Amino acid sequence: MDNSLKISEMRKSIGKSLLYTLPMFLITFIFITGGRPNFSDPSSGLAMLTVFLLVNVLYFFMHYTGKTDKYRAILFIIFALSLSYSLIHNMLEVRKSMSFSQADILECKIPFCHLVIPMMILPAAFTKSIIFPGSIIGGFANISSMIVLWLIATVVLGRGFCSWGCFYGGWDDGFSRIRKRPVIKKISELWKWMPFAVLIMVMLTAALSMMPTYCSWICPFKAVTEFEQVTSVESATKAGIFLSIFGGLVVVLPVMTRKRTQCSYLCPLGAINSLSNKITPFTVKIDKTACNECFKCVETCPLFALTREDIKEGKVSLFCSKCGKCVDACSRKAIHYGIRGIPAGTLKYFSRNLFLFVSFLFMSMFSAGSIINTFHGLLKLIF
Ligand code: SF4
Ligand code: SF4
Question: Residue 219's domain spans which residues?
């Protein structure tokens, strides 16, 4: 191809990507600025502008390069880090400590987090009790808004929530990218059923004890958000468990395996989201006529969601989080985003564009507030 042809192709591709980005540009402008940009506080205005540009540049590059995962991961990882930073910052402002007491729980001074949802189900269904009321602290959502948002995102994205909506998934996603090659290559596939066992356990124990048992005893993200005051052997044991699970499943194993081990082996919400993959409009499809069974996609999946058998059968498992890593890895474009009811291999670009628009919009809406808070806080530290 001669140079002038190349330049004209590039211009066309830039123009097309800008056109795809325009709706995202307008929507994110409205929800980030509320429709009225206000630069009276320069650091807050600069934080908003930075996040607005970050979101739209990443979205533009998804269209321009045709690749999904690395641009998704940049925002996803920044989201997880920012959420922890701004949560800790707010906790320190509100109660001068990262730790909370039993009284804080009873007075609803703890922000509600989506990971609590699995243990709300049985108590809410059978006793009509809310065991973890939560409240709005410094802009963090309360129970009703969180459940509504999660429900909409889950029905639309299914387990895609785990790669496009989760507040914490960016932690193990980030650590799973540190090494180029895994040190541990083989892990039994049976472990991927573990989140279902954890889900059943936390639902039953929460219903029996009327306490959010996952939060109280297991959640690894207590290590990077708020945690119970260490005042007794019991609270010290809990702190030890949080730190060990965080160190093991969120840091060490993701680095050693290049897999998202916390999401794959522990998270009870991941189990519910996997089930909801059965009803969502968006899926990842395998076009058997284009696939040469090289299994590159299987190697690259960070969630143990794809096996050689799945490829041979031509369907992705219910554990798929729609991260796009396998789609990017396939040089034959045999594995692609699709829409339920439309056969594999057809309407690939339309399906991808629609899925990206919806899922990226969810991620931008969930993440923008905490990223702006964090940038704003950092700017105030610098200036
Ligand atoms: S990377 Fe593509 S061609 Fe290779 S097994 Fe996966 S879907 Fe088939
Ligand atoms: S199957 Fe593909 S899209 Fe689904 S989790 Fe694995 S790499 Fe991501």
Answer: 101-280
